[in-house]
Amino acid sequence: MATSTATGTWNTSAGTRRPAWRTCAGRTRGKLDPVRGRDQLEASRATCEIQGYVYDVKRRCARLARELWDDAELADELDRQADGLKARFNRDFWIPDREYFAIALDGDKRQVDSLTSNIGKLLWSGIVDADKAEAVRRHLMSDRMFSGWGVRTMAEGMEGYNPIEYHNGTVWPHDNSFVMAGLRRYGFAEDAARIAYALLEAATYFEWRLPEVFAGYRRSLTRFPVEYPTASSPQAWATGTPLLLLREVLGLDPDGERLRSDPVLPPEITELSLRGIRGRWTSADVVAERP
Question: pTM for this one?
Fold first, then answer.
């Protein structure tokens, strides 16, 4: 697995070729290498969201070390590593003229410039610098990426884009739940609510059970989300999606003995309640109403 090393460089010489959730060959494309005549991603090693996962793990483990393991030295070291990883990532993966993060670095540490939904997982992890978050949000909610039913895995206009190809333009509900959580984390609650409602609307066309994936055609072209021919349903990832959507719409956040709530409802929903939420606070009811 490719992450940044202690020396501040990216280890792209070992590990699987595409260490990411979209691991199938040929399903994400970058620029064609004019020298070697090969797809950049075919040789890519450092995928963007993996760096976010590692960053998140370091932050979480630092908290464990500080609050539960009574190891302040380890906590400080993990926080330093996370700070360094975040700085290097925002320097090396950011494409300034396009204002989004490369999906990966190839074997020669060059940026693979496909615009994909992976950038939403970067928001979820917290690795994105605050001054870059608005640009990432803008891309995710643009017509090129947001179909009206959800955020596509790849933006319209990218080489290889196809709204009915497995990872190159389709909409994955579980992927969208992480995009939504990332937007909420950086303060874009209304955009998160918009994605949540789009997925809820899509579910009505699938007998209220979100499938693994569906087509990424624009909503303006079809009156319903187009079924992906071989999508699994039920599928575990998709089944978990409504739970994260509900948490983010209601803004639920466990905080010691309390359950905090900061709801932001989609305009189409006037009231949403969740009762009997169990935790260290014993039981809690959350009721959100639109004025």
Answer: 0.88
* Spatial separation of the C-alpha atoms in residues 245 and 233, rounded to whole Å: 19
Peptide linkage before 234 cis (omega within 30 of 0) = yes
193, 249 contact by CB (below 8 A): yes
Percentage with pLDDT > 90 across the chain: 79
CB distance 143 to 97 below 8 Å:
no
Alpha-carbon distance 202 to 250, whole Å?
20
Q: Evaluate whether 49 touches 125 at the Cβ level (below 8 Å).
A: yes
Angle at 87 between CA 84 and CA 90, to 5 degrees: 145
| 62 within 8 A of 79, measured Cβ to Cβ | yes
pLDDT on residue 238:
95
SS3 66: helix
CB-CB contact of 173 with 237 (8 Å): yes
Rounded to 10°, the helix 236-250/173-185 angle is 20
Query: Which residues 6+ apart lie within 8 Å of 199 measured at CB?
Result: 149, 150, 173, 176, 177, 210, 241, 242, 245
Cα angle value 104/29/197 (rounded, 5°): 85
